[in-house]
Amino acid sequence: MFNKEFTRDIKVRQGNLSSWPPPPLDWTGHTEPVRSVRYSPNGARVVTGSFDTTIQIWDVESGAVVGEPLTGHTGWVSSVAYSPDGRHIISGSYDNTIRIWDANTGAAVVNPLKGHTSWVWSVACSPDGRHIISGSQDRTIRIWDAKTGAAVGNPLEGHTDFVLSVSYSPDGRHIISGSQDRTIRIWDAKSGAAFGRPLKGHTHWVCSVAYSPDGRHIISGSHDCTIRIWDSQTGAAVGNPLKGHTGWVWSVAYSPDGRHIISGSNDRTIRIWDAKTGAAVGVPLKGHTSPVTSVAYSPDGRHIISGSSDHTIRIWDAKTGAAVGDPLKGPTSSPDPTIAPFKSGMPRLVLRSTILSRGALTGCRPLLTLPMGAISSPDTHSTIVPCEHGMPRLVLL
After folding, report:
1. Could you tell me which residues come within 8 angstroms of residue 363 by beta carbon, excluding any fewer than 6 positions away?
2. What domains can be seen in the chain, in order of their start residue?
């Protein structure tokens, strides 16, 4: 199966189907992994972005999809956000663009924001709603005028690898970014200048960053399976890393009152932490059957929302950790295919319970002509086997 998180990987599983069953015609919800979830400022709706290239709006009370999916992106939707007044939705995509949508009608507000030369991993809106920021695989952060879509100033440069997460400080004066170069950087939102030195401590990619509501602290989640807390003024680490997840940490967020931190992980769980002590609060929230890629608090702090590669969105009681209602979901995956058509027309190979420790796949064609990168996995049941240069790598489970 083509790995939707890392496009140079193939998962190999065993099965006995030679063709992919035809999909039902009445599917609702996302049909691919959910990559980003956010509450509307009034807490009545949730917006989600998915690798099915669409954005969905959901009614929190009923769990129903509101209107038709927002379509226009030609690549996976990696990040979504609401404007502070709730009137607009911002989305970033692997098609290298950012789009602005009317949150009520679903219509595009301006032409796509173009300037990045590679995938857009993360988007955020300034607290005053005047600007949008985006972080990209081209290693830059860009600032945009939220009303016109025009680029503001020059790209913010300094990271030496993909920019995976961006966020504004509560007062809008600073921007933070987390990168595959394992650092967090702070920038002056007005001038674009770097503020202090990069924050170093993570031993793997920094996938998610966020400010505390009072702006005094920064949190970061990493593929080193930890969450770190930093002093936003000095850049010093505050306390020890928060440990407990057994897989990559994809997403982190503060509660509105700043007392708690939540994290979503490759280990399929959400964890709640005491922001002051770093201690785990309660037990992990379990229910997702695939990595948890995005988490967020409701504006009133009473609920937590999570999006997952299992195609579903779940809502949780922030105090008890109990699931609230049924998952918001699309169709389920087809069972144990061997050969399935890939969107580009190239077949994908699926074999279950096959473990190889040496060798390489022969006769495969490249899915994407991207340079090979160092991808490691904390999943002890997988092995990465390289193909020839330029070919996709094989992940054997």
Report:
1. none
2. 1-21+334-397 (no CATH), 27-329 (2.130.10.10)
Q: Can you give the pLDDT at residue 24?
A: 29
Nearest to 11 by CA among 342, 312, 306, 308: 342
Q: Residue 192: which of 249, 259, 150, 143 has the closest Cα? A: 143
3-state secondary structure 272-319: EEECCCCCECCCCEECCCCCEEEEEECCCCCEEEEEECCCEEEEEECC
Q: Is residue 282 a contact partner of residue 271, using CB atoms and an 8 Å limit? A: no
358-389 pLDDT tens trace = 233 233 333 332 333 333 333 333 333 333 33
Long-range CB pairs of 197-202, under 8 A, 24+ apart, other chains included: 197/235, 198/158, 199/230, 199/235, 199/237, 201/228, 201/237, 201/241, 202/226, 202/228
Tally: H helices and E strands in the chain: 0, 30
